[in-house]
């Protein structure tokens, strides 16, 4: 019999029981003690106690939206099939549903969106061949090239484990021992370190991937999202400070309201392609994520555009539980030997299993639109059995002759890179840690250089002298004027380095101490 309760607005508990009193727990008399069999209360409060899953260690503060990706069917002026057999790119006008999550990186889930920080730009494509996750940032490079350094990097950027205060000395202590970060530091402390909002922000896959065609031939590829409607806009530090005083969620609000009013954000996806070899003619290794590929040599080739046209119905179910991984690729896409990519590919999926649960891929926001049939079973919060129509429920293994799953036929020749080298622990042979940082500095506009120097001096002036000297040395190797301007700024700065955390934070604490009015207790 049809349950009429499902068709009205009657409140129920999770067992489907109608709730006739949601205001009062059961007590012995109106003032007496409560009893243990307060089932509705115990179920309600125990669920409430568990409403927060572990916060992301990085990218905790986020916003998201649904939309679609529309392929051009070409890469530049050539047929895309020449370079990749990935189905979502092949036909002009072909649309693939997407979900995008934007984020800040270092700070917590309710931190201001005006803080200086890289922004995450993660796209989940729900393709006919299953999901593809393109997980990147707004900036096109990164601080490090080896994943072994990632936990230390994040620890140094996070608040001090004793004081729980952000402290730039910790960050620059790490960065002074990491010369390859100089290029990223140059971007981060310029206005590019604070995008005005998510709609006017670039995106990049950061790492180098591969495209594979039907013959198994591969090309190295980098992905870039460029905003189509309103251009790119970044903030000065004083502008960010003023916004933060009024709204700590300005970027989330901007994205949500733009979509609600029908001003749908759009980005064009372009790729850079490079043959899959060492490229000894370059003064850097193309697999190095601290480097940009020169657009004059490797131009941006448009392959499609993305439109975000629908807001989430529930922030937690969609934005918070959305789980991405760099290893989530479809046929025609592949990994390169980028060390950082190799490390991310394990770490991302591993953290989702810890954070959301072993069956996180059964949640609607993460589940592919393509059919799913696996022999994986059980685990916490199993929603369903991922079995195929006609599969024997007795067979959860492969191979089998008793009604089990079968391997899929290949879509094309497998890409088989060849290797002949010793197993070693060593950095890339062409680190060239400072050249591109200098080029980026010189390409900045005057106001961007001024802002960069001001922000670096403000952060470095609380650091120990040896850290200042090392960082100035890095900036000087990048560009002589760059290093001189930072050194001159530090020489003019006067600060008591016994203070914990940055000068601006210390000034804020002192302002609070001397503001307000005393009052009697009550």
From TrEMBL:
Active site positions: 59, 137
Gene Ontology BP term (one): response to hydrogen peroxide
Domain Catalase core stretches: 12-406
UniProt feature, compositional bias: Polar residues: 10-27
Protein name: Catalase
Pfam families for this protein: Catalase, Catalase-rel
Organism of this sequence: Paenibacillus rhizovicinus
Enzyme Commission number: 1.11.1.6
Cofactor(s) the protein needs: heme
